[in-house]
Known about the structure:
The chain is α+β, with helices and mostly antiparallel strands. Helices cover about 35% and strands about 35% of the residues.
Amino acid sequence: MTQSTAADDLKRALAAEEGGRKWLRRGLLILGVVAVVGGGLLYRAKHRPPPAARFVTQAVTNGVVAERVQATGAVQPLLQVNVGAQVNGRVTRVPVDFNSVVKKGDVLAEIDPTVYGAQVSQTQAQLLAQRAQLESAKATEDTSRIQFERLTKLYAQNLASKGDVDQSKGNLDVAHANVVAADAQIQAIIAQLTQSQTNVGYTKIYSPVNGIVISRTIDPGATVVASFQAPVLFVIAQDLHKMKVMADVDEADVGKLKEGMDADAAVDAFPGETFTGRVSQVRFSPNTVSGVVTYSAVVEVQNPDEKLRPGMTATVTITTRQAKDIIRIPNSALRYRPSPPLGSDGKPVLQPPAAPLDKGKGRIYFLSNDKPGEEKEEERLIDVGITDGIFTVVLGGLKDGEKVIVDETDDDKKNKKGKAF
């Protein structure tokens, strides 16, 4: 019994020692796991990236701001002449065509002159006959004068009666009146002859200016009828090296325009290319289409290569004001307004409206504390000038390099925490 008991005690002692080692290994393993996890958490906390910026900012810059007005219009020649016909008749010859270069005095078309030539001949014959009548009337006047003078002398010698003298005087007056009437008729026939000769001249249509034919509406054999209104047969552009754009400027922008302002024109036919010019006239006559009021601005554009063609639609950009080497801010900074904070119910808390701004003032926001996660914004009023739609001139209240808020980041977590973003 004694040996058996001793053996059992030894087994229990060895089992206890083995169990203790087993628990020791487990403890060391758990301690290692805890150390690794703790080290990882410590490393992560130490190298954790800073929280995302709450605001989007942009630096104030130094540059150029140009105020511009845009309008569209049709390209036209600087001087365009409509050439028509002043007489009726059949067209016998048209020596020019589209794009023909012509000089002043060149024949553009000829109308059959036969009828008008016959009228000239007829009127010349009438003139000769009337001049013969004038000579006859003058001869009758001379005869009446001689008779009147003779009777006057005889009456002085009591050899003729008073009635004979009076009758002779009346015959002289009638003869003189016939001479005057014949002479007046001659002047009328001369005027008619001049008109007939002019009509003959009108049968040839001449170019009134140097230029290029951009339109022709007549062909040989056609009949021209100019009884009521002279038809337009040709359109001649005097010089295509200079064109004009009849730009329709909105009534809200017309007050910014003045004659002599620089302008650029662009057309779809030549993308990326601009044609320089200037404003030569701003017309007072309004154009009203569907209730929209516009005013025509004549923009003279240089066309040295004759790329611009009549009728093209051009987009005109007119520089009304320009400021160089000035402080400027993006317009998004002037449009930015802070989002209202969220209440406990998760809904935005209504804020009182901002005070209205005086003319020439702008409201911006900048960061008084830009530490991520602790940003703080402050309001500032500044003096502003012209704008080009992207940047606005700062006349006072900001310095080059300062940062202004232009937007807020989109963070749903911050929304749930009730922070403005």
